[in-house]
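ok so heres the complex, two chains, lmk if somethin looks off
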Amino acid sequence: MPKILTGMQGFDEISDGGLPQGRTTLVSGGAGCGKTVFALQAIVNAAKKTRAAAIFVAFEESTRQILSNAAAFGWDLPALEKKNLFFLDARLSPEVVKSGEFDLIGMLALLEAKAKKMHASLIVFDGIDVLLGLLDDADAERREIYRIRDWLATTGLTGIITQKDEADHRRYSFLQFMVDCVVTLRHQVVNGSAFRNLRIVKYRGSGFAGDEFPIALTAEGMQLTNRGPTELRYKVTNERISSGLPRLDNMLQGGYYRGSNVLISGAPGTAKSTLSGLFTVAACKRGDRVLYVSFDEGASQIVRNLQSVGIHLEPHLKSGLLRMYSTRTRGPNIEDQFAALRAQVRAHKPLCLVVDPLSALSARLSHLASADAAQQFLDFLKGEGITVVNTSLMDGLKTDEATATGISTIADTWIHLSYVVQDGERNRALTIVKSRGTGHSNQVRELTLSDHGVTLTDVFIAQGKVLMGVARWEWEQEEQAARLRTKVEAELKRLKLQLGQAEAAARLLVVQTEMEARSAEIAVLADATGSASTLLMSDRATMRKLRHADEEVRVPSGSAAKTSVAGSPLPKPPANKQQSVTKKKAA
Amino acid sequence: MPKTADTHEVLVLRLYVAGDAPNSRLAIANIQAICETHFAAGHKLEIVDLLKHPMRALPDSIVVTPTLMKLHPLPVQRLIGSLSDTNRVAMVLGAR
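and the predicted structre for the whole thing:
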């Protein structure tokens, strides 16, 4: 089946190529859903891409109104109108007097002549319900609708009919049966937030995705926001870029991956914006273009606040590397919100992007469709290879909250900042919840802010408690004192041991000296004993000679000694000494 | 139709029709009858067949057929339909 591309991002995919060529499409929906925009966009795209001429029949609005409404989309309709667009103002003024039945034959005759003249291939009947309402007769309505259908069939034009279908949508339900493609647009309000959806209800002879898709009205027109390529094909680099905080880079073993998505979550005032600011400055210093998106906080306020912690954004704003975009949460439709952000990204072409805080939209993100929008936006950024730092307001690590927004899943690195309340003070603690593809520290670090900037400090763990702030300082002091104490004690002990050693050495010297003395004594004694026994022997021999004795009587040495003692009193002391020395030796 | 000196009295009408479609044929018959009954003194009726001259629908922005335009006396008045309620139509056109 030949089709006409609408140029509407996402729609051409879900309709497998656009609208049916030479057939009629019905676009129905409530007021303000974008029916007119849909129809206009289709013909503008055809006019621009294939130079196809088109006729726009407006039953509800004047040509001037349509042109001014469409001026927001940058399609340059006035220029197109001169060449290949024809607007027919088919409103009937309220002063018209109605009497009897009427038909559309005359108008169709005009349109046919006009179409031939300008070689038009597309025609839009915008707000046909207005015309049908005027007919005010079910039979007449049906008759005229069939007239249009037959006319479209014979002329071979591609038709787009738009129709309002709010209160009495059953009334014109027959319209759905006579066309080949039906697209419904819906405007719904969930929790006070407006969402627009698009759904293809039927498409004769063609496959299509029948789901309801969120749509946004962007500067380029209508687009389906959650349609992107289904396959994820991101360019992956190993390049690391600084988080702006050297210690955090260390904790991440080198910083964030370029093109990754970083989520900084934390309670109010935990320095999420400060970390974003550090990242911004680091990026600008590298020469990366940065887009800083803030919600509900003006750019100048952010600049001033960051200045107080020594982060200076103005030079980068002046150089043009940094662009700040501030918007209100309660601004336009959320899909439009993200579409506007996309437009900013396309305009500034940043390498790094900060969204502070993404959770400003969280009330609205609770709705599935808008969570989808946030995710799609992040997905789009990833596809562009942009490094993104999002902050998210979160009290505690409620993962359900994070997963509800779907951001935690898409985030590659998740840094959580929390307050630790202890000993009457609040201190900021930083942890890395996750970081894909990089080793990362599991340590809690204390984050301190001063005029000079931001520092990360090790925390102390004592008695199973994490110590921060003054408690940490006290602990540090205490630890220092303890170290000193230990040092002194060790010195004291060393000295004591040295003393002991000295004493032992002294004792050893005494013993050695004594030993020497004894050895000398022994030597002397041995000498003395030797000469004494020779003397004794010679004495005995002399005595034998004197007594004229025959043989020597054998006696034990002891008694011999006694005998000798009795015999001669002189050698007595040496003999005793020798005995005592021998005994000592034996002992 | 003879021209009268006092143009204020002359009723100038233009009826847009689409060939011999039923509503158009009815409208032609009805307006002719009304003119003869109420404006015999002076009227000018132009019948434009859009099937023959479709582009003529543009200047007066004709959307539906039949459409009757009362061009004179002012203000310009527009009537649509087969003009079957002849009394009402005559009144709108200024019949006394």
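quick notes: The interface with chain A takes residues 16-19, 21, 23-24, 26-27, 30, 50-51, 54-55, 57-58, 61-67, 77-85, 88-89, 92 of chain B (CB under 8 Å). thats all i got rn
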